[in-house]
């Protein structure tokens, strides 16, 4: 699939790190490094603008290495970029560690996955079809 992109960052376009990668790494575009204190959150610019076709979204997700090694994650994970959004892609990062973390200009801070989605049409009803699970919610299917 071809996607229009405007790159106002000093970096090359996002690319897949391996042949079978699902996500493209996004880099931080910062004048100065950003300090994230424990439990602090900040919006980080990428310098990228995209035009997705109808029926697709861009999902902004954490990078597993940053989450594991530094406790940095994407707060609204996955963040959704709708097909009609034309603004700059930004990443909402949060520091879940107990130490301050510095994000530097050019750091890979998130990954973007392009996903197809469907639109629904509501069908109002008085009742839903019965199932074995019924209203069983959190933990209702057991641990093992």
TrEMBL record:
- Can you state which reaction this protein catalyses? dUTP + H2O = dUMP + diphosphate + H(+)
Spell out the molecular function terms from Gene Ontology.
Answer: dUTP diphosphatase activity
Keyword list, A-Z: Hydrolase, Magnesium, Metal-binding, Nucleotide metabolism
Q: So, what pathway does this thing act in?
A: Pyrimidine metabolism; dUMP biosynthesis; dUMP from dCTP (dUTP route): step 2/2
**EC number of the protein:** 3.6.1.23
- Cofactor(s) in the UniProt record: Mg(2+)
Which species is this UniProt entry from? Answer: Imperialibacter roseus
Q: Looking at the keywords, is Phosphoprotein present? A: no
Q: Which lineage?
A: Bacteria, Pseudomonadati, Bacteroidota, Cytophagia, Cytophagales
Q: What does the UniProt function comment say about this protein?
A: This enzyme is involved in nucleotide metabolism: it produces dUMP, the immediate precursor of thymidine nucleotides and it decreases the intracellular concentration of dUTP so that uracil cannot be incorporated into DNA.
Listed binding positions for substrate are 63-65, 76, 80-82
Put simply, this protein is called Deoxyuridine 5'-triphosphate nucleotidohydrolase
User: What residues does the dUTPase-like domain cover?
Assistant: 11-142
Organism superkingdom: Bacteria
User: Which range is the signal sequence, renumbered to this chain?
Assistant: none
Pfam families tied to this protein: dUTPase
Is Thylakoid one of the keywords?
A: no
Give the family per the record: Belongs to the dUTPase family.
What is its EC class? Answer: hydrolase
